[in-house]
Prior knowledge:
2 copies of one chain form a homodimer. Chain A is built from 12 helices and 12 strands. Chain A is 43% helix and 15% strand. Chain A has 335 residues and is an alpha/beta fold. In chain A, the strands form 3 sheets. A 6-stranded parallel β-sheet of chain A has the order 2-1-3-4-5-11, sandwiched between helices. A 4-stranded parallel β-sheet of chain A has the order 7-6-8-9. Chain A has helices at 2-6, 10-16, 25-38, 44-51, 68-82, 98-108, 122-131, 155-168, 184-199, 214-226, 239-253, 286-302, and strands at residues 56-61, 86-91, 113-116, 136-139, 149-153, 174-178, 206-209, 233-236, 262-264, 281-282, 310-313, 317-318. In chain A, β3 (113-116), α7 (122-131) and β4 (136-139) form a beta-alpha-beta unit. The interface between A and B is large, with 52 and 53 residues. β2 (86-91) of chain A pairs antiparallel with β2 (86-91) of chain B.
Amino acid sequence: MVAERAGVSQSAVSRAFQPGASVSEKTARKVRKAAAELGYRPNTLARAMASGKSRIVGLVVAYFENQFYPEAIEKLANTLQENNYHVLMFMSWDETEAPETVINDLLGYQVDGIIAASVGMTDVLTRRCEAAGIPVLLFNRHQGDDKLSAVTSDNFSGGRKLAEFLVQAGHKRIAHVAGWDGASTQRDREAGFLSGLAAHGVTLFARSCGNYHYDQAQEAARVLMRAPVRPDAIFVSNDHMAFAVMDVIRSEYNLRIPEDISIVGFDDVAMSAWPCFDLTTVRQPTNRMAEETVRILLQMIENKDMVPCRTALDGPLIIRGSSRIPVTTSANDVG
Amino acid sequence: MVAERAGVSQSAVSRAFQPGASVSEKTARKVRKAAAELGYRPNTLARAMASGKSRIVGLVVAYFENQFYPEAIEKLANTLQENNYHVLMFMSWDETEAPETVINDLLGYQVDGIIAASVGMTDVLTRRCEAAGIPVLLFNRHQGDDKLSAVTSDNFSGGRKLAEFLVQAGHKRIAHVAGWDGASTQRDREAGFLSGLAAHGVTLFARSCGNYHYDQAQEAARVLMRAPVRPDAIFVSNDHMAFAVMDVIRSEYNLRIPEDISIVGFDDVAMSAWPCFDLTTVRQPTNRMAEETVRILLQMIENKDMVPCRTALDGPLIIRGSSRIPVTTSANDVG
DNA sequence: CTGAAAGCGCTAACAG
DNA sequence: CTGTTAGCGCTTTCAG
């Protein structure tokens, strides 16, 4: 035991390893020395049990198909690590049976907080976790009722920006390939987009749904392209699906982007900047989202009875080559 | 307390929640009933401390840029979950300072085992973990000395298949865009590839290095394409870099793939099947790799003094449209 | 099959 | 600032 070797009490050892505990530098040094010699390292689990804080955050995710999630998770994990927390991963791949199991596991591990980046289970999850006094924070999604805190980007405003951009570029037949309607991102992005169109007296030309999946997005694109009159611009609800739409348009219909048709997406994942896609999109500020998520969650952990808050971070429109350029009203027009 | 409510001892409750413990069905039922009424759930952390088994596996990863990793991690996490283990994520983004920190955290959490899917730290990591008696398993990489168990695909054989395929397709100037030389995947794939070429008396036409990064792979492609004589086929060490190479070749040099130049990769990530890339590649059998990894790791956990084993799973050549088709020797030639 | 008792390794008051 | 004393919630001998 380290305490003996250092010639101090067990408490002294404990305190020597706690950030701001009251220990004399002398004692601390003795302890560190003894610890080093014995290869001792505090047992996080024992500490968790005694203190009631596990410093573990449960991260519930469903799938990594959409690149946005790996990117976000990497940042969340990093930020958490910087704050001396760690991520316990829970895959909730099966939307029917999984929630029950996942929640039991989550609760069993005494996680200090939960980040839910997954869909389809949050209602159940929430109630059970609140009952257990565990803070839950929604990442990249929110729920109808304002009971749950959530961090998202400003999907409505993003959708609006895209609409205005397309209208100003002179597009007349603007279509939408939607994601899954059950997701708040989809509803917000579409609402913002429609509102942007409406502001210019434009109505949506056509709509089909890809449910945020690559394959379904391909099919959704075909639906639009098979119509007697084709759209001249498509807003696809996320970049991942936009790639599918672009591929179909180019390889199956031999059309050029943006000459024949403009495509815009949402997320600005790394791939969107690749020459092959060069996609105009709205950037989700992943870094800031992750930082805010961690900041708020840690705050909730410290202060259990916080009022739920909803954070929507604004992201910029990133204009690239997949869309026709708006007719620029020269600045000289003014004078 | 559940024990009281069920009118049994604490031990009985404990046993009722353990898989194969000796409890009468009657007692178990009483306990389950009381537990349900009280919303009780065993505390995994307390259990971990008392039993010495945390049922947590540390997963050390470096980055998700290459799609292969998210795909693999998803499968690893799922498989582990099916076995009642969970994944504690450790990002080792900073290769200098991180290892020390990561290892301390890892050891502090009393993980039962470690899966290292990351590079650059395994030497240090290994020794310390072995000292602590924690099994370490390398995923998608191995080390020179045979001290460490590892699960990979058969990278040598995969490289060889690609070489033979390109030679048979009639390519004369075959180049290689390499990944990071410090990675065993790179060394094995290249060795297999060279051996495949050699078997047909062919030597490598040119080589440049992309270090497994998209940006560097673009530059590596430019190096090859700027040469006075260009290659007519390129083996890129992974799909992720192959996308970069294809993009450069098409968008900066206006060449067609595969008419002007064939491209082949390695991994078969989901994107490789997208029409836009349609990449010929060697599939890493991610599912089987994840299953083997978990199987072996759990075995190591149960049986601490196992001899290290190295598993290399064979993956098929997936022929798609990014490469010229080999001249088929008609089956009728035989007779 | 079951209960009693003794910890797992640490933190958290509480005196001093 | 430091040591003492209790546990955190479970598993585990060991009797019975």
